[in-house]
Every structure is written in C-alpha cells, then in structure tokens.
Amino acid sequence: MQVAFLLLFYILSPFVILYLCHKYAFINKLGAVLMAYVVGIIIGNTGYFNGDAINQMQEIVMSVTIPLAIPLILYSSNLKKSFELAKSTFMSLLSALIALVVIVVLGYFIFKPIGNGNFSKISGLLVGVYTGGTPNLAALKMVLDVDVSTYLAIHTYDMVLSTLHLFFLMLIGKKMFELVLPKFVNQDNNIDDKWISEVAKDPYWGLLSKENRLPLLKAVGITFFIVAIGGGLMMLMPEKYQMAVFILSITALALVASTKDTIKDIPKTYELGMYLILIFSIVVASKADYRNFTNINPTIFYYVTFVVFGSMILHVLLAKIFKIDADTVIITSAALICSPPFVPVVAGALKNKALILPGITVGIVGYAIGNFLGFLISELLTLF
Q1: Are 368 and 340 in contact (CB under 8 A)?
Q2: Tens of pLDDT along 254-269?
Q3: Is 192 helix (H, G, I), strand (E, B) or coil?
Q4: How many of the other CB atoms lie within 10 Å of CB of 53?
Q5: Helix (H, G, I), strand (E, B) or coil at 324
Q6: What is the DSSP letter of 170?
Q7: Burial class (CB in 10 A: 0-12, 13-18, 19+), 283
C-alpha cells in the first residue's frame, strides 16, 4: 500500500507544482524544478516511506523517467536553425563551451582531493549541467553512476550559484560587460513565436488538452521505440560502458528524429519531457537524508563556484578577442548556465527580444551535446 501511494504521489505531484506555478507568480519565479526538490526532501524526511520495496520502486522510477525524458525534450530542437546561427552567436556559443571545458579541467586539478578516483564524475556532471541544465545533469548521473548525495549536493549548489549568476546578468551584467565588449547591433533577426512559446509564457498549461493527447501519444510511442533500440545497443557493449551507450544512443536517435517535421512539430513534447524530469527530481530528492544538507561539502561547493563564475569570466575574455557584443554573451551565458527557459526573462531585462530565438537555439544545442561532452570530459580526466 505504501509503495502504491508513494508511486501515485510521484506521478501526480508535478501537476500540483505546475498548477501552483501557474497560479502564483512568486512560486513560478522559484521554478518548478526547485519546488520539486523541496517536495521530495519533505516527503523523504517524514520517516514514513522506507524499506526495500520502496527503494526498489524509486530506483525503477529514476531509471525509467530519464531515458523517456531525453528524446521528448529533444524532439522540438531544430538542428537546421542551430547551423544557421549568426556568426556572433555561434562564436559566443563556441567561446562559452571552450571556457567551460577549460575551467572544469583546471578546477579538477585545483580541487581534486588526493586519492579520490571518482572526482572526474563531478567534472562530467558540471560540464553537463552547464551545457544542458537539469536534464543532462540527471542523465549523466545515470551514465557516470554518481551516488545520490553527491548528485544532490551539486544540484543544490548549482541552484544557488546559478541564481546569483542570473541576477548578476540581469542587473549589472550589461553595464559591466559593455566596459570591455562592443554594444549589440540589431541584425533584424526573425523571432519564431512557436519556438518562444515552447519555453515561455506558461508553456505547461494545456499539456494534456484534448487536441494534444493523440499527438503526444504518438511521440511517446516513438520514444519507446528509440529507447528499445538504445537498450539493444547497450546489451552489445561491455558492462562498464552499457549505460553510457544507452543514454548517448537515445540522445543521438532523438536528434535524428527531430529532423522530421512530423515529429518536430508535435506540440508540448518538451513540456512532457520536463514533466518526467520533475518526477525524477522529486524521487531523487526524497531519497536524500536531510542531514546531508546541514553541512556544505566545501570542495564541491568551491569547485561549482569556480566553474560558474570562472567560465563566465573566461567567456568574456574570449568574447573580447572575437569582438562579440555584450548582449550576445549575456544571452549565451544565461542559456547554458541557467538553461533555455530563462532566455526570454534575460532578453526582457536586456530589452532585446531579437536575441530570444538565438538564445533558445544555443540552449537546445546545449541539451544536444551536454551528455556527450560531459561523458567525454569525465572519461578523459580519469587518466590523470
């Protein structure tokens, strides 16, 4: 009975969270993912839900939600638009990725505790979360077999530091960056309202409306097919690389599927994928011991801080070399460090709607490459 009730709670509680985000502006500003973690921590520390049967159910839910979420999130991506980015946006994206990898690798050698052979996993998680946000962080947790306490520590520190980073960009970033970078010149970008609606203006509302049910059922069917192929490929690999091959193969197959208009144009696939991410977030938070949050792990906290702000500074320096304007750097940083849903918010603060579409495109590219890049960096760092 406990298992069935808790499973039902995991499935339905995101509905309540999203309704509260829709109803109350201050909850919406906190964000659905943060609320999911709060709910999970509360339910997990009641002391009522424990035992082998519940632990087994939690592991199954976590193992199912992420592989299903990744394709759904990526179906609405547009690879063609990604290759059509303006030169300044593309160079800003490239500079940001270079800056992130350099700072993550440098931080690995600065903060790695002596004898800690698993510290490279943290590096991989940081690359993933600062290219693709929570979906890639959750996927790489599975790929790299990261324990729950480490995952939650990184996610907690990330939420705090990313919020500070976001406030900096919105409040004083433009004035500071324009001291060293050129000002933005409007190139008359066309704004794609469909894309913007995917990540702004209460996008979850109407997720299961009558007109969306059948198309979404089709998307779910395609997703199961992709996951089945990924599972088959996984079984052909040595055990050490099975999870990596599984996640990376479904990522690649989802990107291929997104090139088909009949799949890309299915409404609300991104939102359905993020709904599964919310379920995952509640489950993983409910498995955590509250006592883990009373003591900050200084090594991980300093490492995350170093990556968030160090990569931003290096990004600006590279942008100076490539003569990228301040607004483009800010929107790129917001898309990668904070994720695509924050792009319209930051664009609004900059009073520059022309950068919404490029910013969202940058974020979608981050979703697409984050799993690959995070796994690659983690594997390379194990050699040192």
Answers
A1: no
A2: 989 988 889 988 988 8
A3: coil
A4: 11
A5: coil
A6: I
A7: buried
